[in-house]
Amino acid sequence: MSAKPAVREPLLDVRAVGAGYGGMPVLQDIALTIYPAEIVALVGSNGAGKTTLLRTLSRVLPATGGIVMNGHDLLPMTSDQVFAAGLVQVPEGRQLFDRMSVQDNLLMGAYRRTDKAAVARDLDRMYAMFPRLSERRQQLAGSMSGGEQQMCAMARGLMAAPVLLMIDEMSLGLAPVIVEQLMGVLSTIRDEGVTVLLVEQDVNLALSTADRGYVMETGRIVHSGPAKQLIDDPEVRRAYLGL
């Protein structure tokens, strides 16, 4: 008798999630699944609810439904507990400590870690991954260009040793050459075992790098599937790619 194929367990399982602000619902019946070591794109127009979903997963907003990561129920957790469990968000607008050095910003990402030798190794790894940051390690983060600040924000998130890294609007306002470099970094860390949830208004950019994707409209998931399948979907191409 042949052995049954192993069942792939999800890293993050979101079921029937609802959330909003001040009693005003924004998210309705959200369901998505993310598996280990993959890049999942969450795309949609401005105001679709993408950032609200990230804030809900990070437990900044109260929610109904089910959010399970690595077998742990995140719904009753605080945002600090979720961060400690390995769910790390790189926020839109980067939100660096502008008057602190690049290196101090990176070390702030590792503030909960006690493995000092591993933190030092990861710091060296960030400088190898982002050579521009190595050149500016003692520079004030707020004095750098937008692209350099985005590199710093991503490196700070990686210094937290995330199980799942959520990145909100990574490409916003950046030059194409910087965006291409950052997308290459996402592929690298995915290959190293880090799982990524990438939130983007630039649908083509996100789906061209992701393994799978979800499309949001007015607080609901309206399309999902392999990224290539979504890019080729006539409805997605018409609504989001202008084709």
Give a structural overview:
The chain is of the alpha/beta class and 243 residues long. It folds into 2 domains: 7-86 and 162-243, P-loop containing nucleotide triphosphate hydrolases (Rossmann fold, 3-Layer(aba) Sandwich), CATH 3.40.50; 97-161, no CATH class. The chain is built from 10 helices and 10 strands. The protein has helices spanning 50-57, 79-84, 102-109, 116-129, 131-135, 146-159, 176-191, 203-209, 227-232, 234-240; strands at 12-21, 24-34, 39-43, 63-69, 72-73, 87-90, 164-168, 195-200, 212-217, 220-226. A 6-stranded mixed sheet has the order 6-7-8-3-9-10, sandwiched between helices. A 4-stranded antiparallel sheet has the order 2-1-4-5, with helices on one face. The model has no long low-confidence stretch (mean pLDDT 93).
